[in-house]
């Protein structure tokens, strides 16, 4: 197919009238290509002038390089996430498959139980079903939720993890630490005097009596008539003596105080600093409550 080539030479830049120069196609099927020559540059009709600007072309090349760089970063990030997910999935491979399956079923039952979750957790603890594998399964799912930024799932699983961990530690704790935990939980956050009365009553009921007269003359024996039934005190395997409670609580306080002395108070008003200070204040309140319980146990009278 033939084509006509029209050459227009000018010494000045193209004016609007020149740039709008058009040729109507003839009745035949010949294609007409218009090439405008100006200052040794050729422009094809219909293309923007920027296509012939060296600076613009350099910018486009830089943008293309930046696009390729971003794509490479996205590919690397995707590969990193895949590796992390693969690593999370292999954490439980060393545990028995049957135990992992039971742990997942147990966690699912906790999530479905909704308001009855406390009863379900305590029931599972009594059956000995709360194990390290249960915590590992929750931690794995929590780790995935953090990477996917599932805020509601993170909050729910974090609470569930802490509650189960607390129950496990409670079952493994000594009688003194279990009693201390129960006494701290009696506090409603407001009535200090009422809380002290409840704790005194609980201690008096828990600790064996240390009254020498009650040991020499058991209850039910009449000292004047020397009559009455003598009974041996009931043997309790897990009886908690007051001296044991005082010793363990005092050791705990010394350890906590040493840790608190090494912690530096966060400064500033950013969210992390404020949260850190609030956490430290909560710890200080708990320490004061433990100190009050220790003093109460030392001065306890029946």
UniProtKB/TrEMBL annotation:
Coiled-coil positions: 57-127
Superkingdom to which the source organism belongs: Eukaryota
Listed GO CC annotations: amyloplast; chloroplast; chromoplast; etioplast; proplastid
Signal peptide range: 1-17
Keywords carried by this UniProt record: Coiled coil, Signal
Single GO BP term: chloroplast mRNA processing
Name this polypeptide is given: Protein PALE CRESS, chloroplastic
Organism the protein comes from: Kingdonia uniflora
């Amino acid at each position: 197919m033939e084509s006509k080539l029209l050459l227009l030479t000018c010494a000045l830049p193209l004016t609007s009238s020149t740039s709008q120069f058009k040729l109507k196609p003839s009745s035949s099927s010949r294609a007409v290509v218009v090439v405008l020559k100006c200052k040794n540059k050729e422009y094809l009709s219909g293309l923007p002038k920027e296509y012939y600007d060296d600076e613009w072309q350099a910018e486009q090349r830089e943008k293309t390089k930046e696009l390729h760089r971003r794509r490479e970063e996205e590919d690397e990030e995707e590969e990193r996430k895949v590796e992390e997910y693969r690593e999370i999935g292999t954490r439980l491979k060393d545990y028995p498959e049957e135990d992992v399956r039971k742990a997942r079923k147990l966690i699912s039952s906790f999530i479905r139980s909704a308001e009855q979750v406390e009863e379900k957790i305590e029931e599972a603890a009594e059956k000995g079903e709360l194990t390290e594998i249960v915590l590992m399964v929750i931690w794995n799912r929590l780790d995935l939720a953090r990477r996917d930024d599932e805020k509601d799932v993170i909050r729910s699983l974090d609470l569930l993890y802490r509650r189960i961990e607390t129950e496990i530690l409670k079952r493994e704790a000594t009688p003194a630490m279990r009693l201390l935990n129960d006494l701290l939980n009696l506090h409603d956050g407001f009535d200090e005097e009422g809380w002290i009365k409840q704790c005194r009553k609980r201690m008096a009921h828990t600790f064996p009596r240390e009254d020498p007269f009650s040991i020499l003359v058991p209850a039910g024996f009449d000292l004047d008539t020397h009559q009455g039934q003598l009974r041996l005190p009931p043997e309790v395997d897990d009886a908690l003596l007051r001296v044991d409670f005082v010793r363990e609580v005092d050791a705990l306080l010394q350890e906590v105080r040493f840790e608190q002395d090494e912690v530096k108070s966060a400064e500033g008003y950013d969210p992390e600093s404020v949260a850190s200070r609030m956490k430290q204040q909560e710890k200080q309140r708990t320490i004061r409550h433990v100190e009050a319980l220790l003093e109460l146990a030392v001065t306890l009278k029946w």
